[in-house]
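Q: Given only this backbone (440 positions), what sequence would you predict?
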């Protein structure tokens, strides 16, 4: 036993076992403790959302999700541009030529002074293997953009879920702090009443006042934590003020998966898989850059007025064959693409191993935290029962308020520990859903 505790026990014993004459001596009038200044009320919440409402509102209003949607539109626009290789190209041209005087000889006009030509050209790439490959590669990038948007939405939903759980955990601490404050206040009133009646001691009253002040400070700290959590939730759901929680989330049961099909439900895994498929296609299409390109075009024209060497109506057909013979950039480009494919395959392997580990850890965390919650709840209930018994004994004069203070601390610590365990269980269940790709 430390010297401080021994001194307190000795002082309490001296006051409890003093002589009757001394006990009946009038105590000097002590000034009553001034009541604590009322704390400023917390700003009222704009509204209270359920868990699903908070997640849905965060994902629908977050600008990051909107940016991801714009990335999808951009990728689809590039895909439409790449598809143009399968369509013919047609354009028209009108040209008017004016010279100072007509040209000719032997009475024949070779070049009129004013001549207008109307032409139209339609061309089509009959063989364009590299362009056709670019279309498939653009389709892969559009698929990557869509999966990336899902991953972005998932990250925003995770932030909203964690903010919501933080509000619930903070509110639970406030409930504990308020009960502890009310208990301390009742004991302080009892000790003050006994002191004023000449039946108690100043030491007991001072201890009860100190305990009440400590309980009130803990309540204010807990209220501040709730305010911060509600402000954070309001920011994540894009509200103009704090947002409160409306009930606890209900997480569905998650039986263990029979195979690895759950990996397809995770956006991050599907994103890396899509990147690997795109990289593999780019590498496999590299040989198409060496294939020739064949282009055919047809150009009809009408000239007015016609000239001696230029009739009014003509047409031209054109065929072009372009064969790559030497291009020093193609081989290094292929090596770069092969390196990108190898990197994507390594990322997929690492992510798959990490995902399996996350599932095992989350499942074990849920199992362990369920046992911890059961134990801490039992301990908190026993501590609360011990506090009630100690209070009854104290009011009956069978114990001192030292035991009451200790019982209060034990009950408060037990409730705090149980609340923390419940919060960890909620987090573990959420982590399991995330690991299995079942949230949001």
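A: Predicted residues:
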């Amino acid at each position: 036993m430390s010297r401080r505790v021994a001194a307190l026990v000795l002082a309490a014993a001296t006051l409890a076992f003093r002589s009757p004459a001394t006990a009946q001596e009038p105590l000097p009038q002590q000034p009553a403790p001034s009541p604590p200044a009322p704390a400023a009320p917390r700003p009222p919440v704009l509204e209270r959302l359920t868990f699903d409402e908070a997640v849905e509102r965060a994902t629908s209003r977050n600008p990051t999700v909107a940016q991801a949607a714009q990335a999808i539109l951009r990728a689809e626009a590039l895909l439409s541009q790449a598809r143009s290789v399968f369509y013919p190209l047609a354009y028209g041209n009108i040209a008017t030529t004016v010279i100072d005087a007509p040209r000719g000889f032997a009475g024949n006009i070779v070049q009129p002074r004013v001549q207008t030509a109307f032409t139209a050209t339609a061309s089509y790439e009959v063989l364009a293997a590299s362009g056709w490959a670019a279309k498939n590669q653009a389709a892969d990038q559009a698929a990557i953009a869509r999966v990336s948007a899902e991953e972005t939405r998932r990250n925003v939903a995770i932030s909203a879920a964690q903010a919501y759980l933080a509000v619930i955990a903070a509110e639970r601490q406030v409930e504990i702090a308020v009960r502890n404050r009310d208990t301390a206040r009742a004991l302080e009133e009892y000790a003050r009443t006994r002191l004023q009646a000449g039946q108690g001691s100043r030491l007991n009253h001072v201890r009860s006042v100190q305990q009440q002040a400590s309980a009130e400070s803990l309540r204010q700290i807990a209220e501040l934590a709730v305010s911060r959590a509600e402000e954070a939730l309001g920011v994540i759901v894009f509200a103009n003020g704090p947002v409160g929680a409306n009930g606890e989330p209900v997480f569905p049961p998650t039986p263990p998966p029979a195979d690895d099909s759950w990996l397809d439900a995770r956006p991050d895994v599907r994103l890396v898989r899509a990147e690997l498929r795109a990289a593999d296609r780019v590498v496999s299409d590299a040989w198409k850059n060496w294939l020739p390109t064949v282009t055919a075009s047809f150009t009809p024209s009408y000239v007015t007025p016609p000239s001696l060497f230029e009739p009014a109506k003509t047409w031209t057909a054109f065929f072009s064959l372009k064969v790559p013979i030497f291009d020093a950039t193609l081989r290094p480009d292929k090596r770069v693409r092969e390196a990108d494919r190898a990197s994507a395959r390594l990322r997929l392997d690492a992510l798959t191993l990490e995902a399996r580990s996350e599932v095992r850890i989350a499942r074990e965390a849920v199992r362990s935290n369920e046992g911890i919650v059961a134990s801490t709840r039992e301990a908190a209930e026993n501590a609360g029962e011990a506090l009630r018994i100690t209070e009854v004994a104290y009011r009956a004069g069978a114990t001192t308020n030292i035991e009451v203070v200790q019982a209060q601390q034990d009950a408060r610590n037990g409730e705090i520990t149980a609340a923390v365990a419940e919060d960890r269980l909620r987090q573990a269940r959420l982590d399991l859903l995330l690991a299995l790709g079942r949230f949001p």
